[in-house]
Structures are given as structure tokens and as C-alpha cells.
Amino acid sequence: MADIPAHVLAIQSQKNDPPLQQIEKTPKLPIQEMKLIDVEELMENKNMNNQYIVVQVYQIDWKNSTQYLIVRDFNEIWLNLTILQQNRLCNYQINDWLIVKNPKLIEFGIFIQDSQDVVAINQFTYQALMNSEIDQTDPAQLKETGNQYFKLQQYRLAYEAYSMVIKYEHANKTNLIQEQCYNNRAQCLFQLGYIQEAVNDLNQVLQLNPQNEKAIQRQALCYLKLQNPNDAKKLLESLPNHKTDKDIVFKLVECELMIKHLSGNFDLISLLNQYVNQDEFSFEKFNNFKHKSIERKKSNLGGLGLFVNQPIPKGTLLVVEHPMHKIKQNQTLGMHQRDDVYEEIRQQAFNNKQFAEQLFNLYDGTNNYSLKHVKQDFEYQLQNYVVDLLRIESIFRYNAHAFQLLKVFTKNKQIKYLDQSEGLWFTLSQVNHSLTPNIFYYFLGELLIVVSAKNIEKDEEILVQYHPPLNQKEYQNNLKSHNIPLDQKLVQQNQLWKMDEQFNEIKTIIKTVKTSKSLNDLTTYTLSNPNVIQQIKEKYPIKYLKIIQQVSFDLFQVKKIKEYLDLKFQGLVFQFDQYPQCSTIQDFFMFLTVVSQGSDIEKEMVNFIFRVGILMFGEAFLKNQNSEDLLFQLGFKQIKK
Ligand SMILES: C[S@@+](CC[C@H](N)C(=O)[O-])C[C@H]1O[C@@H](n2cnc3c(N)ncnc32)[C@H](O)[C@@H]1O
């Protein structure tokens, strides 16, 4: 507190709203209009309209569901600042400086009705605002100030400084450093997340100097951020060194990948992005979704199954579904201790008719029922309170899916792990098994996503793979436990079991990946090519280097994994080269999704593969190698006709 003056600062009203006010909390405070008022003056001045005071948050408290900020002013005078926002958390933190507009003095402090009247600033900003030594009529000095702020990552203040230069030069009709200041200001805007505004500033630069390469590159980055890879690509290709400069090459690759991704009709990436960028992702946000073509009918396999009544292209999102029931965290997963689970389901059935209806629609181990009977049966059971636990147990046994429960990514990259769990997903439970399925599914937390893995014909049955056939015995036992006959075509693996031996190494990798909590645990495999490591070192932050060195996905291994998975899953998800709907990144996502299915390292893997992919593709560009070949080797889709 030592260098804070013993005043309360009041700032008179501003004539114009600051341009960035809606998005950034920091208001534009015209330094020249600041007026220092001491406490006495403030206390006497009852009419505080259109004035501001500046205070610091000392403590945050709750009283009668109203949040109070205990603040102090510069004289260490305590004030209760009442924010009349019932049951609402405000964003301020201890030690934040607040600028309070229109404060109303009351006995115990300041009373604020509208939280819009409070703006938080940090101490640095405050001090900078207090610093009036800058000569505002010296553009060079202002620009230098901007540069200093930029270095300190105080983009907001840097923005202000560059703006002053621009304003000054406009007023004086000079153009000495305007081009640079627009360019630098664009960078501030970019950092502050005002991408379109940055594009506008860069347009100013390019009007002044169409050859400004820095501006061209920056604008391309903006377009990439705005998910406009075509314009980004055009700009980058206009640069004279776009075939030799590594940075530009990599950016061009990113454009290409994004163009491919955006042309796909299933947007898995943004779905994933949605959930990694949230503060705390809530799966609740998604509504259940079921493709309109899906209907339930009698299946040739026995019992009922799901069918589509129109042709469905590969990559179509078919189902997004919350579990109708899931095992609670404290409930054990052991086969013999599930009575409480079944009892809970029974209670839920008595209490919730819709749930009961769904439940009794599920296969219960007896294949000889009709939906009509089921309906009568469940109504009878509910009415007479005779829903027997054995039946529920059976329903659960034949229909439950295991999933790795709820990983929550927070903004600061923390991952909260919870346990593995099981649950019932209504739609998926109606799908029969095949070794050559036409859909695949995965979980985002407990949210089930089902996507078509092939083009599905009209009236074709939807089939899913219940168990990955990694081991013949296990696979067959699993089918047996599901009452699935082993002699039908749909479940036979033929001679492919022989491939097992050959791919032992890959199996170990997959297993390691699956059981590791983080990529840092994966120390067994290292990248063999020192040149690649060097390239990565130059190009990417330590984080990636660590990952890359510790996991085994060099070219060779990716290729082998792809080969292996193609065979083992009979091309279900991994025939990258036959995936017309999906762009290369999506193919990789699918690859990752299964290899690390539901595991906590999914996101890291995504980053990792994406980066390595770009890097290697870029390398090929530089060496004038056939990049399409390389992509194919990497497991990306082969683009050749
Ligand atoms: C989750 S249910 C699937 C829907 C079920 N067919 C129904 O009528 O509601 C699982 C049961 O379906 C039957 N099933 C699934 N796939 C099968 C297949 N390929 N051949 C024969 N029966 C199958 C088995 O009885 C299995 O236990």
C-alpha cells in the first residue's frame, strides 16, 4: 500500500463509452480527466452521480444470501460495499481494485444496486493510470510506452498508448509511425481476444503499406482464429517466402487441415473443444438427440434391434444421450455387491413412469417377448409392486455399458479424475452386436455419442461391436455371456486371430496408453529419430517435447498401429483412406478416441498427434517430399485419386 496515495480517487463521467468496455472489465480512464478527491471531500459530497471511487477488495462475505464486499479505501477506512445481487457470485477477488460508478453513500458504506456499476482493475492498471508523466503530445514516447506495456503483457494499456499515437497523428495529419502503431495495436487486440477488431487495424496497415509482411501474417492468424482458413491461406500464399519459411509453411498446413475439417459434416472437434474450454464443463448442457431415421424393429439376429429407414452417410451423428441410470460413485462395481444398485433402479421405476417404461423395454435375457407384452407386463408389475429384482439384475447385466466416469477439464488444464463406472443408455441398449459394425460410440464423461462408421443403407440394422476382439478366448466368452451364438457370420473373426502375435508390441503400447493417467507415465518408448526431436525442440514448447519423447508415435509406430487396428477392427473406424466425410484430423480423433477411449489422457493425445501431424507434414513440404504420401503414412486419409 505504500505507494498508493492517501486519497480516494474520483473520476468524472466520461462523455463517450470506451470502445472495449463491454468485453474487458477495465474501463478506459481518461488520465487527463482524473480528479483526486480526499476522503473528507468525498464524505461531504452526497451527490456522487456520475463519479467514481476507487477501492480495494479486502474480504468477500455473505449475509442473507447477499454478497458483501468488504473494501478499504486508501486511508485504510473500512467500508462495506453491498452488491445487491441476490444469490449471485461476483467475479471480484481479494486485492482487486474496483472502480465504482455512481456510489451512494449510506451509513455503513457504499451501496450499489447495479453490479454493472462496478469495474475491476488490477493494481498495475491503477498505478499506470496514476502515472501522468507521459507526454501525450510526443508520439514516439507514447509508442515506446505502448511497447513497454506490450512487453509486460499489459495489452490493454499498450492498446491505449498506441491509440493515442494514432489519434494524435490523425489530428495532426501526419503519418510517421501510424503504420507501426496500427500493426502493434492489432497485436494487442489479438491478445485481448478482439480478433475482428485486429483484422480492421491490420487493414489500416495494409492500406498504408500493402507489402507489410508482418501484417499479412498477423491477419492470416486472425483468420485462422476466426475459422476462416481460406482467407488465411490466400494471405499466406501471397507472401514471397511461403514455400521456404517454416513458420509460414506450418501455418499453411494448419489452414489445409482446417479446411478439411470444416468440410466434414460431423464436427467432433468443436464438440470436444466445447468441453475442454469451459471453466467446468457440464455435460448437462447437451440435450439428448436421436437421429430421426432410427426405428426399432424385429431383428433377424433374434429379439429386437435398431434400424434406419433412410440411407445414412458415414460420419453422421446418430445419438447423443445421457444415461437413464448410472452407478453412483460410492456404489461398488463388483458383480456380487450390486443389490443396492438394483434396488435403486427398482425404486426409480416405481417413482418414474417414463423411466420404468424405458427400463422394461430393454432386453432382459429372454428373447421371446413382444413389445405389447412388455408394456402389459410392466404396467402390471408397477401397479402391483412386483417388479422383481432378478429381472432388473438381468436387464442391467445385458445392457449396461462401462465408461470412464466424468473427467472434467478446467481452464487451467487441471483434470479431475473420478472413477470408472457403469450405466444404462437407452438407445445404445437396443443395438445388437457385430464384429463388423456400422456405428461406433464413445463417451464424453457420461454423455454417449454414437456416430455412423460406414454408409448405412436404408432398412439396414444398426450394429455395434460389444467387445473388442483383442483376444479370441475373451471375445468368445463375452459373446457367450450375452447369449450370442458364436456360429454366425457377424461375430466371427476367422483367421485374423493369427495377427495377434505380430502386433504384440502395439498391443503393449495401447495397453500402456490406456492404463496411464497421464502421458508423463509413458516412459517406455522413445522417438528414434533425433532430427525429428531437434525439429520439434525448435518449434514447440517443452510441454510437447516431453510428450513426444515419452510416447512412441513416430512415423513407424503410427503406421503399425493403424495397420493393426485396421485388421483388428476390420476397418470399422480406422480405414482412414475410405473415409470421404472425414478430414484428416477427424480420422485422428477417431483413432485416439478408441486407443484412449474414455481415458483421461484423451485431450493430451489430441494435442500431441495434431502437433506431430502438422510438424511432419510441414517437414515434407520443406523437403519437397510428397506430403500426401507422408500423410498417408501417418494414418491420415490418402488424398490421391
Ligand atoms: C443390449 S441387447 C440388444 C437388443 C436386443 N436384441 C433386444 O431385443 O432388445 C443385447 C442382447 O441382444 C442379443 N444380441 C445382440 N447381438 C446379437 C447377435 N449378433 N446375435 C444374436 N443375438 C444378439 C443378445 O441376446 C444380447 O444379450
UniProtKB/TrEMBL annotation:
Domain SET: 292-467
A GO BP annotation: methylation
GO cellular component term of the entry, any: nucleus
First and last residues of every TPR repeat: 179-212
Keyword field: Methyltransferase, S-adenosyl-L-methionine, TPR repeat, Transferase
Full protein name: SET domain-containing protein
Pfam families, A to Z: SET (PF00856), TPR_19 (PF14559)
Keyword hit for Transferase: yes
Annotated organism of origin: Paramecium tetraurelia
Tree of life domain: Eukaryota
GO MF annotation terms: histone deacetylase binding; methyltransferase activity
